[in-house]
Amino acid sequence: MNSTPAITIDIVSDVMCPWCYIGKRRLEAALKQVPDIPVEVRWHPFQLDATLPKTGKDRQQYLSDKFGGMERANAFYSQIKAAGTEEGIPFDFDAIKLSPNTLDCHRLILWSRADDVQDDVVERLFKAYFVDGEDLTKSELLVRISEEAGMQSDLVEQLLETETDLDKIIAQIGKAQESGVTGVPCFIIDGRFVLAGAEKAETIAAGIMHADATRTDVEAETAS
């Protein structure tokens, strides 16, 4: 049995970010390349657009405003769709009707860590939005996802009606921005190495191997 402490990979992400979904797939592929290195993945919040209202905004209008017209938006997303296809993600951008405020999604992700189902919840949120075109601002969707992931969905339903941990999520987003995170996904490996963007699986795997190879040196420096 491997008694070596796990290498932590902290992922700063937003569930309305398609590159974060792609980055998740690439991380999964990277982990298969380093099966002998124990890894603990932890998800942290970010908001691509904190100005979105709690009820979200019509996606066509949102993209048109953001890109200066749907023609430019469609060209941008066609590249993302191609990248997703390479990773086995069947993006259906046409099915998405609303650009959501994701604070409640981040609260659900935070709560899911206690049940050790964080990765499952993140995956279900990505799929619900990017593949099924569901509305991430709806509490009933978040409750359903929590139930499917094995959480206490009745408790989640109650908490979503309050502002529990909302300040914590906003503070964590602020901390990420203060530390220099301007875009997502951002992978922080072993608290020492940062990979900004949805890097290829080989690059992520190399980062994990480098962190593993050099942590003995870090431990020695800490002890001295």
Automatic annotation (TrEMBL):
Alphabetized InterPro entries for the sequence: DSBA-like_thioredoxin_dom, Thioredoxin-like_sf
Pfam families, alphabetized: DSBA
Record keywords: Isomerase
Entry GO MF terms: isomerase activity; oxidoreductase activity
Ranges where the DSBA-like thioredoxin domain occurs: 8-205
PANTHER family named in the record: GLUTATHIONE S-TRANSFERASE KAPPA, THIOREDOXIN SUPERFAMILY PROTEIN
Name the UniProt record assigns to this protein: Putative dithiol-disulfide isomerase involved in polyketide biosynthesis
Organism: Roseibium alexandrii (strain DSM 17067 / NCIMB 14079 / DFL-11) (Labrenzia alexandrii)
